[in-house]
Amino acid sequence: MHLTEEQLNEYLDNETTERAQIESHLSTCDECAARLTALKTLFAELDSLPELTLSRNIAARFMPQGQLTPQLPRWLTLTATLQAAVALITLIVAAPFVMNLLPAIEIPSFTDVFIQLQSQWITWFDVLSAFQLPTTPQLPALEISSLMLSLTLAGVSMLWLVGNGLLLRKQS
Amino acid sequence: MTAPTDRDLILLARRGETEAFGELVTRYQTSVFNVCYRILHERGEADDLVQESFMRAYDRLNTFDLSREFGPWIRRVAANLCLNHLESQKVTAPLDEERDADERQRPEKQVEVKERSEQIRGALASLPAQYRVVVELRHYQELSYDEIASEMKIPLSDVKSHLFRARKILAEKLHAPD
Lengths: 172, 178
Description:
By secondary structure, chain A is mostly helical. Helix content of chain A is 64%, strand content 0%. The termini of chain B are far apart.
């Protein structure tokens, strides 16, 4: 009595509980041993298939480089360009007039500016020195026990943790 | 610095970091492609199914059980998608018809196919859809009979009969005398 196809397949797949009996039969039956060898050859051939490479990189679709540098709307780009052009033209047109006006403007010397700033500072300093805070009513002394302080700190920490948890939660 | 684990990448992807999912795709796209190509034997379709598999995985990321391995899981997703794809195309001919058709084509095919691996791929591709997937899950994803039954939602007896008959057909095609 020879082994069935099912027995040989289950033996090679390690899905049988009759290993000992099958091996015992194989050791004495050349025909079944040959069938097993043929099946093993098929297994080896299936295992020998080489891995092929992809023709395109699927991962690139999940890399959002494009999203990090979004394109500005066309109208905004045009407006900015137009503004820059108008500003440049205005500068070129206005340049001769500005050059004519410049000598008429009196520019104070560095020493004059320094003396002016110093006198201003002395005035501010006098005002600050004379300033008095309004009297505040006397508050009763606040007594905080160490237990109270610990509970408050624990509460604030919990709030902080919950707040961060909410912030880090996946936005759907 | 060590590379992030699959689990780390899944957690990051769940928080919306798509680059992390991109890294997972980079890690597994080749193996997933090979699953699809072994079953479909058509590069363009395999590429499409690889993409669909990862899209499906991305959609299910929030419900993915982190105690499982991502690699084997995504490969099973791909195998199931390929099976659905084949069945929707109705390319699965009844077994006898398939075998007869192949018998007629075999001599020409053997002349055309020079590489042994191509012969094997061709033989695999000629199997009915369910047989291909059973072979894929057993030989390349190393699932047990019970796991295959659970994955394909078919009885254990069907898993065995599909697998053994698939091997018989493959042996006939690949070991037939010239």
